[in-house]
Structures are given as C-alpha cells and as structure tokens.
Amino acid sequence: MSTGTCDTDLDELARLADAATPGPWKWWTSNSVVRLSGADGKDGGVLSAVMLTNGPAILCSPANQAFIAAADPLVVGSLVERIQDLQRLLDGERLENSRLESELASLRPAEPADSPSGGYFMIPPKAHSWDGSGERCADCGDKD
User: What ranges do the domains of the chain cover?
Assistant: First the structure.
C-alpha cells in the first residue's frame, strides 16, 4: 500500500461515498465476463465491461467514477495513517486513564465491602455545632 500525506477532504469523500453504489462491492465472473456488483444486487451495477457496436466499453456511473477516482491509494494510505495515529493516541489516553484510576484508588481509604457504603468511599455529612440554645447551628444557621 502506498502511504503518504495528502489533504484528504473527509466531508467530500463521505459525500462521494454516499452518492456511489452502496457496498460492499464484490467482483463476479461468469461467461468470461468480469463485473463489479454492489449491495443493491444489480449485476455489474458498479462496473462492467460491455461490447458496443463500435467496440468494448466499461459501464460505470458518474457517481461511482468520482468515488473510485477519489479513493486512490494515496488517499486510502493517508486515511490508514490517520486511523493508526488516532489509535495510538487512544491507546495512550487509555493507559493514562488506567494510571490515574490506580492513583485515585490508592488515595481512597480502604473500606470493607460489607460497609453501609457497599465498599465505596462516602463523604460524611457535615457536623453541626449547635449554639448554646440547641436550636441553631452556630456554623451554618440550620435549625434542629
């Protein structure tokens, strides 16, 4: 596969793919005639060879021609490289996430699984400091 960088317009490539014959595409051969058919079931609906009165020809819709031309080896190679770069980035983020989860777990106090919290760390409710009358919290003003 030929790879390299190219300015692939992903929106345009998606538009061309949407306009082309739906895939998957599959090559068929019978009676020594090769043709490319799509998921729509039309025999040779993507690409087929025919014999016209003035000689052989290839039938291919303008939408399929545009898509085939746009999906050249440089574009496909560039897309593969982008996917591989994103996969490496995702793998690195997953590794960092795992490291941070481990670090966070080490910061939490151990609590038995049969505790009221089910093993999860619970923040205790704020204690109130009742004033001398016992009717209001001296810190927040809550009433009993």
Answer: 8-71, 72-105
